[in-house]
Amino acid sequence: MARSARPLGALGCAALSALLALGCDEPARPKTASAPAPGSAREPLGDGAPPTSATPGAGEPAKTPVPAPAEVPSTPGPDVAKPIAKANAIAGEPFPLPDPMPECARPIACDVAPPPPTPVGERKDPAIIRVIGKPGTNPGELAYPMAIAAAKDGSVFYVVDKEGRIQKLDKDLHVRAVVRTPEIARGRPTGLSVAANGELWVSDTHYARVLVYSPDLVLERAWGAPGSRPGQFCFLRDTKETGDGRIITADYADDIARVQIWKGENEPLSTFGRFGIEAGNFQRPMKVAADTARGELYVADSVNHRIQVLSWDGKPLRLWGGLGSDPGRFKYPYDVLLDGDVVWVAEFGNHRIQAFTREGKPLAQWGRAGRGEGEIACPWGMALAPEGRLLVLDSLNDRIYELDRRAVLAAGGKG
Fold first, then answer.
1. What's the domain range around 202?
2. 409: helix, coil or strand?
3. Cβ partners under 8 Å of residue 215, min gap 6
4. pTM listed for this prediction
5. Does any domain span residue 1?
């Protein structure tokens, strides 16, 4: 039976981080004080990139029922943090959800207000409405945010960070609830999307499955199984509902890179793309944006440093990019969004966002490497917000920029 988010009550928001770590397969880790500076030598794909092993496993997809959460003992005992049995990944069985469900997987209600927007006349950078978040593991704080998603009407937003914490923000960007994914020992989720019915879909990358949450962050079910065959997942990066009943996913392994179309959960329709540099093939597809009206899919083909546009049957239509830092070039594009006739791209490696026409003509760019105001480091994702706003993850700086899209476009390449 679904459970609603519990209010924090006397605990207060400051006590949440300890509570989230209680009973999970891995306690929340303190943030390292000496993070490398943007542009310094580091793994090209950044924290959260999968290990070099090929595939999590092989097996048949299956829905996984959600066990009831465990009760928290008054004095934590050995059962609170006991190891959770894992599926045999080599055999390819779905990774089972823990039973009983750890306490960290129960949502907790909260209310943390963001800083007020900066009045237009007082902005040093006309594009920056405000900066949200700071390093930490309390509600409203961030520890390397890796994905962000918005409801289509802009009424709610979700952010997941490297601690496996999902935070729910309302339309005014108040943090209203927080939860930890039930398991993070293998890795953290790197993809979020909001379905038409309000469910939150979490691409649980290293567990080769989709976690499905209610709008209030109650874990309802999971589906998917590891494997390289069609209808299975390797390292799952993106899961989206397309608006016409279909689901689209992007996953990869050492020699696999593909997009899959589904007619429903565990009901694969088609698979296209292979590991490679040719048009229609990919190297680490990170995100997919779907335009059902035009019959087009936009893929952030990260290690090929390009955006590919394909038909729904995988036929290459056009592509643009290539490795570089000039306008129109990319260095590890990690996210792609469709905004009417504008295509937004977040670049992990160039520490910026770019805007394009649907044909790939550069319109504008914003951001430069650094930690100060107007500077950004390793952005993993973006989300459209009402009133012409754009939320951008400043991942390595543990914060979110709220930008004015019109100001970014008006500035062109001066951002």
1. 6-32+41-414
2. helix
3. 156, 168, 198, 199, 200
4. 0.84
5. no
